[in-house]
Amino acid sequence: MTNPGGKDGGASRPEAMIELKDLTKRFPGQKQNAIDGLTLEIPTGEIVIFVGPSGSGKTTTLRMINRLIEPTSGRIILEGDDVTSVNPDKLRRRMGYVIQQVGLFPHLTIAENIATVPKLLRWKRDRINTRVEELLDMVGMEPATYAKRYPKELSGGQRQRVGVARAMAADPPVILMDEPFSAIDPITRGRLQNEFLQLQTQIRKTIVFVTHDIDEAIKMGDRIAILDDRSHIAQFDTPETILSAPANAFVEDFIGSGASLKRLNLTRVTDVPLVDWPTANVSADRESIRERLLRSDKGSVLLLDDEHRPVRWVNAGDLDRSDEPLLETGLSATPAIEQQATLFDSLNEMLNSLQGAAAVVDQEGAYKGVIDIETIGAAIRTMRGEARQRYRGEEEQQTGGLESREEPES
Amino acid sequence: MSVLAAFDWSFIWEQRSELAHGLVKTLEVSAIGIAGAFAIGVALGAARAHRIPVVSQLAAVYVEVIRNTPILVQIFLLFYGLPQLTPYLRFEPFTTAWLAVMIWGGAFNTENYRAGFGAVPYRYREASLALGFTPLRTFFSVTLPIGSRIALPSSINTYISVLKNTALMTAIGFPELTNVARSIAAVTFRDAEMIVVIAIVYLAVVWSLSIVIRFVERRLALPEEA
Ligand SMILES: Nc1ncnc2c1ncn2[C@@H]1O[C@H](COP(=O)(O)OP(=O)(O)OP(=O)(O)O)[C@@H](O)[C@H]1O
Ligand SMILES: [Mg+2]
Is the pLDDT of residue A138 over 50? Predict the structure, then answer.
């Protein structure tokens, strides 16, 4: 085991969906193993992230789990069954796989691409059509617009999303994803990550997710495997532990600077209490808005449109400038923060908008509450407290093992 | 122009039904030859591209032999050579005709399809296998449709050559268009007219074939990923 200590060293844990046992691959004609004795358990219903430098063997490992590449030695256990030598075609239907280059079939439309596996399984036409629409909606692509298009008529990011939809078509319990969001701009990527996490709370798939991006890993992962050369595990643990207790210099390097700032990525907006903020409808008259402002201690009022979506922040000074229309005064309150977003995203938005607070919305875009600097400060204090306790706990475990009974502190 | 003006057009018109018979034979032989060349090209091209043992090596020898010998020699071998080796391999002129162009076109098409299948980017096959397609199904659903489109321009040239090569069947006395024209000329001594007429007919047929194929090609054109 490459992971001594830590809470994952034990033999039995919540049932593992996939177990890799001493998995090794040597490509013909090479002197070194490309994957060298990888042992790892992937728990059911969790997102496990493989993160590591280029060439560390992430893709090769996914290909072996899927048996696109046969391991030189070692075993793969899926739901308790040894699948190292079963029929690979049947095995592959139990796991969706989004390959690194997406590989949408260029001669088929988007709808036909997504329908590939359902057709293979001989689903009825109606069921297939319904499923295709459902999946396109799920990845945020309007079925009416995109179903009939060909892959070349999509942007790189849209293709990646269709790749994800195609892998999920027949609802496999396991999904392997090789850098599925890499070709997407940071804003869209953030939104997709949020939507994907939201989806995962409902579908609870076992997901193996490869990325280069440590921030993505911290945000998406229930557990992260940081892979060194030849898929040696540098650390396999929860994002919290990796950030607060990196196992070695390689992991520290990989996390990079600003580990404490990155830890804001660990807390989601749903996990913190939202602040109540004075609000008013955009068409309300200035006097009633001013009244509301005076009754609160917040210094500004959040204007909402008729659908309850945040529009602008206005303060007393803005209200006094009666020559300007209300919608052109104050500060913009968009884009608002989704609930799956992290405190890191929220802080970012606060700094961008200069407001020092960010409006939080539900899936329909309707106002839910506000996150302000106070919220973030409180979260940082909690995290610091938890980390301190964990350190202390680990020390106790190590020192309190054999005969040492006397403890210096309580 | 003056040459064409000197032609006796009414004479040609009188020969129209015989020439039409010859054209039909030419088209029949071409159609069978093209269909066969397509089938051989796909099957052996796949064997070559996927390096299927034994079949792949045999296909390579077949392609080498056909590509490096004159087609007229191949026709004579089929028609005159084989019956001397064994009486069971004695073919009618018609059979010899389509067999010869099919074997010839098949060899060239094997090369076309080998290159076409080989040019299918690996990611498509990987995606297909990853989705749970068997290797055979991956071939039919992914490699074949994508590879055929890549091979289309070169295989079109092969099909057009198959059609033109049917003219060589005149050498074994098979009454296709060229042969019919030669026979008419032999009894009427109107060689110039006959040659010009069949040249125009061949041109018209190949052009219409090209138009049809261009149309199909555009319909099938692979929407290439950027
Ligand atoms: N088919 C192959 N034949 C020989 N060597 C290979 C093959 N596939 C991968 N390798 C080698 O195995 C190592 C791991 O490659 P792999 O593609 O798994 O890396 P990766 O971690 O996915 O990298 P990236 O982040 O760049 O995608 C590399 O050194 C690569 O050169
Ligand atoms: Mg890779």
Answer: yes
Query: Does an H or E element contain A188, and which?
Result: helix A186-203
- Domain containing residue B34: 2-219
Whether ligand 1 lies within 6 angstroms of the CB of A113 is answered as: no
Instruction: Determine, for residues A106 and B225 on separate chains, whether the beta-carbon distance falls below 8 Å.
Output: yes
Is residue B225 domain-resident? no
Here the CATH number for the domain that contains residue B127 is 1.10.3720.10
Count of domains for chain B: 1
**Chain A CB within 8 Å of residue B129 CB:** yes
Instruction: Kindly indicate the confidence band of residue A139, based on its pLDDT and cuts at 50, 70 and 90.
Output: confident
Does residue B119 lie within any of the structural domains?
A: yes
A56 lines ligand 1 (CB under 6 A): yes
Q: Kindly state whether residue B226 falls inside one of the protein's structural domains.
A: no
The 10s digit of each residue's pLDDT in A296-306 is: 888 889 999 99
| pTM summary value | 0.75
Element (H, E) at A167: helix A156-168
Q: For the segment A167-182, what is each residue's pLDDT rounded down to a tens digit?
A: 999 999 999 999 998 8
